[in-house]
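In the previous chapter we treated chains in isolation. Here, by contrast, the input contains two separate entities that must be folded as one system, with a combined length of 686 residues.
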Amino acid sequence: MNAAQVLNGLALGSLLMVLSSGLAMIYGLRGVANFAHGALYMSGAYIAYSVSDRMSFGAAIVIVPLALAVIGVVLELCFFRPLQHRSHIELGLITFGLALIVERVVILVWGEKTLRVVPPEFLQGTSTVFGVEYPSYRLAIIVIALALAAGLILWLRLSTVGLHIRAASQDIETASIMGINVDKVSLIVVSLGSALAGLAGTLAAPYIALDPGMGNAFLITVLIVVVVGGIGSIAGAMIAGMGLGLIQTLSTVWSPSFAVLVPYLALTIVLLWRPTGLAGKRIS
Amino acid sequence: MKRQLIAAAATLALATTAACGAASTNSGSDGGDTIKIALIPPTSGALAQFGTDAVNAWKTAARLANDNGGIDGKKVELIIKGTDADPATTLREAREAATKDGAQFIGAVMTSPEHAALNAQLEGLNVLSFNGLGKDDALVGEQCSKNAFHVVQTSSMDITGLASSISELAGDKWAIMAVDYATGHSAAKKFKAAAEAEGKEVVLEQFAPLNTTDFGSYITKIKDSGADAVFAVEYGADGVAFVQQADQFNLDKQLKTVLGFNMVSEPLFKTLGNSIAGYYNNVGYDVDGDNALNKEFVAAYTEDHGSAPYYVPADNFLSAETLFAGIEKAGSTDPAKVADALQDLSFDSIVGNVTLRGADNSLMRDSYLGEVVKAGNGLKFKILTNSSPDVTTPEPDSACKK
């Protein structure tokens, strides 16, 4: 096993980390398995394609998460809040339907051809790290994801809003009785979770090929990451995402056919060993 | 009054049944002054663009034919259907086209599974199918039909054409990167045998599952293997991901040759950009082919649809040429007579003189090796070698019982 393969695992794990943390946040607070998360990620990648084409990739990194945060606000105000007293299965089905609608809209706007986003010029080619020549763009993804993870956890632990989010995720009704504005907290969490999906899509755009099915391909893996991490736990999802990325990549070196099974095996083993997931139900 | 109403209703029902029966009986037989061709392309999903381009080629073929007074004096009429590329949907559309719309011929069906399902039903429907897209070898083997005509090269023909050109390519240590699918394994096996026969070494053979998004670990293994050439069998989004990630890893710096099998094609040139300049790939059709029929087709297609044709429109136009040659020889649009007329028929086409081999209804035509080169602001294939059908085409499969 060489250092380049470990870096490959870290790069994939970083992408899973960013994508799964948004899903974990929404699940932790709203209790909704947001099946539209993959579609949000996919639409983020397509918007990044257009913004990069007309402006720059740097602009896409800023604009796409903001655009997806607005979509998150719409999701919260039009679906999650009015339907919060309905069963989780019903809400899950609605998000599934929304995912289908988003996919069709993307096809109507961008077409069905596979697209490609070129990374910014200074991140093209390779850099040498640990004596290994490795793609600069993948190194940038690892750095961005780790910085984001640290920032997110510090924000949740040290800020007042973070405290309210953690309290509401533990018990939303008690948090409300204690005077926390849970509607505001929920709005922040859903819009931030959607923004993270948009950021993941933007980061993924130069990494993988863009096609309308790309969200579905990642959604199943990310749902597994969230369950393995401990439903609703952002830190758990981050650890599980990075771990799964590493294990899957390293097992690909050994046997690509077996590597496809790794997420499902990890899910089975973790649920048998620790049914609440790696971290249990905590927000950070 | 009530009895009269019942009698009238019964008479009307009988008349309707008789009319339907008459329509059904007429379907699939000689269509009189019209040649009715049903097109059943995919209209949704990843293949939709190919479906549109296939239909465009048939439209151009019909226009040219009708402008010249029709085929054997008969007007060409296209009946355009649509499918999601699911064999069940395609079959349903084919039945409707044959029994309700009176189609005698079918074209623009895309995938091999659709053709396999269709071939089994063609005789019952009394229609002929012209396959310009499905490449599976089984379609001219155990799944063949006397009513199905295979115009496009099979996978075997393509890979044999590539393998026969390996001596022309630089690189002594080859890595094989293929999709973990039957096509990927069979292509890898044939290529490995051809490479070793040429005294080249295969230093790595690896297969990635279909829909792989991250090729990082595969590319790292290629770099570590010391390979100086790569044979890649990756399609669609997988192919795009492999190419763009290989570019990010600077894999090209280590390689003298990247040879793709159905990996890069004209519709992907814009997406893949200049990073694929210098790549080699099998090419089914040479747009610059120097014959009058091809020049006429390229000019007409470009005029009709605003861009030059590539292999999908070309293979469908060739399907139309094959059908029209059969009708002219038969002097009839009756499917059975056209099928008989096509047996071992040679005719001039956009890809030169071709022969339809009667034993398995497959068209004997050349295969090419192309290099992607820069042309103006874009890219194009430059044809390097031409493999004739006596090199690329295996003997008819004994499993084909027509």
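Residues 229 and 237 of chain A are 4 Å apart (CA to CA). Residues 3-215 of chain A form one domain. Compare these points with the single-chain example from earlier in the chapter.
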